Structure formats: C-alpha cells, structure tokens
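In this supplementary section we document a worked example of the pipeline. Step one takes a protein sequence of length 262 as its only input; no multiple sequence alignment statistics are reported here. Step two produces a three-dimensional model, which step three serialises into structure tokens for compact storage. The input and output of this example are shown verbatim.
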Amino acid sequence: MRKSHPVRRVVLATAATVSGVVLMLSLKPSSDPASAQAGGTLPQQTAAAQESAQGGAGAAAGGTVTGDVVQTQYGPVQVRITVSGNKITKSEAVQAPKGGESDAKTALSVPKLNQAVVTKQSPQIDTVSGATYTSEGYKKSLQSAIDKANAASQAQPSAQPSQTAGGSAEAAAKTVTGAVSQTQYGPVQVRITVSGGKVTNAEAVQAPKGGTSDQKTALSIPKLNQEAVAAGSADIDSVSGATYTSEGYKKSLQSALDQAGG
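The serialised model returned by step three reads:
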C-alpha cells in the first residue's frame, strides 16, 4: 500500500480551504446599491434625504399657491403655481372659460400661458391672440398667486436675504399697486415690484378696453411698463396716440411709488 506524500496532502488541504472560502463569498448578500436596484430593491434613503424630498427642513422655500379668481367676460379664470427654490416650476389654470367657443380658446391659450410663465418667471407674458380676455384674467390671477408666494416667503422666519455679488444683503422685493386713475376712456391702474430700492417690474392691472381702446392699450402699455422700469420714476414720456392712457398710467405709477417709499 502506497503512502500519501506529505506535500500532496498539504496541497489538497489548501485547495479544500480555498473552495470553502469561495463558497462562503458567493453566499454573502451584495451591499452594492446598483446590485440592489437590479434585484428590484431600492437602497434606503437617509432621514435627511426623505425630509428634503417631502419639502421639509432640507427643501428650498416654496410650495403650491393658488391665485384669486378673476372674472372675465366669458367666465372665471384662476391660476395655481408651484414654487421651488424661489422659482416657478409649474403653472396651471384651475379655472378657465368653458362652453361653446370658449372651449377651443381655452384649449389654445392656457397651455401657452402655462409655458410662458415658467419660461419668463413673471406675469409679464404675452397675451394669446384670439383669447384676450382669458389671457388678461390669467395674468391677473397669476400676479395674485405670485404676491401670495412672496408674502409667504417673507413671513418664514428661517428665510435668509439673498446675497449680491458684493456680499451685501439685497432688500426684500415687494409689490405695490397704485391708486386707480380714471381717464376719458376708462380706468388705469399700475402695479410695480420694487427690489433693492429699484423698480424691477411694472404692469397695468387695469387699462382702457373696448373698440379702439384695445389697440391703443396694446400699443402703449408695454412701452410704458418698460419706461417705468428703466426710469425708476413716473417721469416718463407719453406714448403718441395714447395720451389719456399714458397720463392715467403715470398718475397711478406715481401713487404706487409713493406707497413704496418714493
């Protein structure tokens, strides 16, 4: 009977040990997140990540705000916006004119208005041709929603003032609506947004309409809005062909500036 060689016994024992280790490793569950997802199980989120996703302490200031209902000639319009990280991420009309021709006009205008709000981050959006009343009602309700969002943001005790490039804290923006100025062709009322002591936005929340007034308003208001922001005062030029509207605009603008502190 042949005796096993000592060296051969060592080699066999070593091989058996290595095989056992390989077998144990193959039975060990994987802790790799990618492997867990591939197997249909998502990795656990940390408490901070879950809180941030739900809009808790880790989330930027924001939320969903619904503007006031604005009555138009063809029905009510009401806008809801979603704000995240001080930006409008979504805008939608929760009420809009419907029935008869209004259905087609609403279907045409509202998606365009929704997209324009997210793109421009402002109520200064273009009126959709063929849906003037719906567009104007939309913009008024949108401004109301933005005002509410700004007020809620300023009311948060944890909110920090934004920093300019120079490192100084920028004054909080505020929106002020001037007094209604009655003109020969209808009322004019101006709303401005002031930030850091400057007028950053101006718009007419009321302006003459109907007949030739529609054309004059469409011609003059955008120019007056632009001039108000550029000048930062009511000392702006009247638009040729829309003298009454221009004068009413400047009076209401001055009223808004007075309320904002000059």
